[in-house]
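Fold Annotation — chain and its backbone
Next Lines — sequence and tokenised fold

***
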Amino acid sequence: MGKLYLYFFKVSSDVTGSDPNTSSAAAAATGQKSDSAAHLLASIRDLVATKLHCDAQLRREAAENERLVREWTTAAKVVDRICFVTHCVVLIAGSAIFLTLLF
């Protein structure tokens, strides 16, 4: 947001003629003001288009990341269940073998 404001301030100061290197007579010319205004509007349009493009790209990346998180979460749940079942089988079998050898 700060870059956008600084760029807008720079372009708007060029339109108003507040630059000390610009002569006041040249800044007062109607043709130059309309050209500067057109340039300013074109710059604003380009900035808005860039912002919309970046927002769309961020939304696509966020959706892709969310999809990957869901897939990995599912994979983690499957691995967790497999480990749980394996642990239970080993624990029960080990206990049965231990009790068989004890008595």
Remarks:
- The radius of gyration is 34 Å.
